[in-house]
Amino acid sequence: MSNNRELLYSMKILSFMMLVICIVVPSLRICVANDSVNVLQSMSDGERLVSKGGNFELGFFSPGSSQKRYVGIWYKNIPTQTVVWVANGANPINDSSGILTLNTTGNLVLTQNGSIVWYTNNSHKQVQNPVVELLDSGNLVIRNDGEPNPEAYLWQSFDYPSHALLPGMKFGRDLRTGLERRYTAWKSPEDPSPGDVYGVLKPYNYPEFYMMKGEKKLLRQGPWNGLYFSGFPDLQNNTIFGINFVSNKDEIYYTFSLVKSSVVTINVINQTGRTYRYVWVEGDQNWRIYISQPKDFCDTYGLCGAYGSCMISQTQVCQCLKGFSPKSPQAWASSDWTQGCVRNNPLSCHGEDKDGFVKFEGFKVPDSTHTWVDESIGLEECRVKCLSNCSCMAYTNSDIRGEGSGCVMWFGDLIDMKQLQTGGQDLYIRMPASELEKDKTEKDGVNLTTFDFSSISYATNHFSENNKLGQGGFGSVYKGILLDGQEIAVKRLSETSRQGLNEFQNEVKLIAKLQHRNLVKLLGCSIQKDEKLLIYELMPNRSLDHFIFVVICLLNMLYMDFSQSNQMCSVLV
Ligand SMILES: *[C@@H]1O[C@H](CO)[C@@H](O)[C@H](O)[C@H]1NC(C)=O
Ligand SMILES: *[C@@H]1O[C@H](CO)[C@@H](O)[C@H](O)[C@H]1NC(C)=O
Ligand SMILES: *[C@@H]1O[C@H](CO)[C@@H](O)[C@H](O)[C@H]1NC(C)=O
Ligand SMILES: *[C@@H]1O[C@H](CO)[C@@H](O)[C@H](O)[C@H]1NC(C)=O
């Protein structure tokens, strides 16, 4: 009884003196509900520091059957000791003589018999009464006592992840300080020293997270597109965790948050080259794997080589993109896809026949090492910019939320694309004119006649002023007579018209679908160098005025010039 009273008394003194270590002495089952170690304090093997709410504890441990001692943090209430952070992973202590001390300049120092095993490298000048605190998030922090800003840490373990990511932990890079927060696999479950497999952010123009083995890329998440990491669309709106990606001039990072705060989940990287997201299942008293990456064989980095796309449902998972063929057919046939694919027809870039783009849907966008991003421009400007640079091979919106916004362009060969089974993004890949023509006919199913430019020129008396029916910002409209007697109207796009091949083709498609009795019938088109013509049927039983009217109205509509089309087109309805 008196012993107990003494104990209580000394506990009060401990609290009073702000002696802030929570020492768990298992035999006595006492725990000072205080979660800081102050300057005078140190922790020796066997003692523990518990976070305020009791989620985590810091102490010395030995992984598996290892005899070596490490300082680490683990879940306090999970019976299978699950270490989430380790201090001296590369420098174990071989007996129980380790001592962790907070020194007066605000650094934690782990020593064994006087020699330093591990220490923090906080170099802050303004250190005053530093204290150590283990937060309920699992973050071990050193801060000045009484510091009003709760997040002004002198040092925090979350800046130096071990092999696990916890909710709220930033994974990425602080661009101001250059601090890189990567997470690194343990060499083995018994050896927490850093292996050569790690997860890291590559701060490219379009930043991406990779799993690496040394310098080799193992797996790519795909860049953040506003909704998800391009390669893993099915992780959005999952029931366990929310994904937050932040990219600004100061920092680029990923954190995950809990959908339900009671769920315990952790993301661990493993030396086998996998990451596991575990969820603690209370009923089973066990960790269950919720997600593991790579998800399938197609996640293998660069499996299909340049211009190859991986689709897991195919017997041959790698396919060359349409318009491409295997670089080495023999290698390809024997399932060695790494040499990738080459174009069937060369690009001409600034040559006679202009290149264009073919839209691919449902994609994990290519490796973003050589990219350029402009968040201020949209898809159309992006296309124009990409087209004007011969080494730009693809573009798309950098952010796909809503209608999509921003521009990302890829330079050089496109690698590590995946055709996703659900979700995925649009990607516009540069193609020579010959491939565009094929793509157009395949996609449209609308077979319009392609007229020879000279025959249309002849039919309109070489676009003479006498044949001119009207003029708009888009160019002029001429009447003409084909050799077979068919009366036509020809829309000739002015050379200054900024309309590109793609829009032109879209317009042709659109008009072909808009076959309204009041509207004119599109017979076909003609494309030659910079000349783009649309050929309409001149309706015999309508007055010429009506025709001009309809065509101009239609063109205004197509050009989104509603101010004009509204007045004019009202007559049509
Ligand atoms: C505290 O520890 C750090 C890291 O070992 C060291 O650089 C610093 O000099 C120490 N401060 C004092 C007062 O011993
Ligand atoms: C501690 O270090 C001293 C000086 O280096 C050495 O003499 C002593 O044997 C060491 N003790 C242990 C237990 O390792
Ligand atoms: C990697 O994961 C496997 C399967 O979960 C496990 O057996 C192994 O212990 C893990 N290795 C490491 C280094 O954690
Ligand atoms: C094309 O873009 C690349 C990458 O941004 C740039 O290095 C190169 O100078 C550009 N070429 C032209 C002709 O603008």
From TrEMBL:
Gene: LOC100801916
Membrane topology: Single-pass type I membrane protein
Top-level taxonomy: Eukaryota, Viridiplantae, Streptophyta, Embryophyta, Tracheophyta
Main localization, broad class: membrane
UniProt: ATP binding residues: 491
Residues annotated as domain Protein kinase: 463-573
Name this polypeptide is given: Uncharacterized protein
Protein's UniProt keywords contain Cell inner membrane: no
Domain (Apple): residue spans on this chain: 349-433
Compartments, as annotated in UniProt: Cell membrane
SMART domains: B_lectin, PAN_AP, TyrKc
GO cellular component, one term: plasma membrane
Domain Bulb-type lectin residue range list: 34-155
PANTHER family, A to Z: BULB-TYPE LECTIN DOMAIN-CONTAINING PROTEIN, RECEPTOR-LIKE SERINE_THREONINE-PROTEIN KINASE
Alphabetical GO biological process terms: recognition of pollen
InterPro entries linked to this entry: Bulb-type_lectin_dom (IPR001480), Bulb-type_lectin_dom_sf (IPR036426), Kinase-like_dom_sf (IPR011009), Pan_app (IPR003609), Prot_kinase_dom (IPR000719), Protein_kinase_ATP_BS (IPR017441), S_locus_glycoprot_dom (IPR000858), Ser-Thr/Tyr_kinase_cat_dom (IPR001245)
Single GO term (MF): protein tyrosine kinase activity
Keywords assigned by UniProt, alphabetized: ATP-binding, Cell membrane, Disulfide bond, Glycoprotein, Kinase, Lectin, Membrane, Nucleotide-binding, Phosphoprotein, Receptor, Serine/threonine-protein kinase, Signal, Transferase, Transmembrane, Transmembrane helix
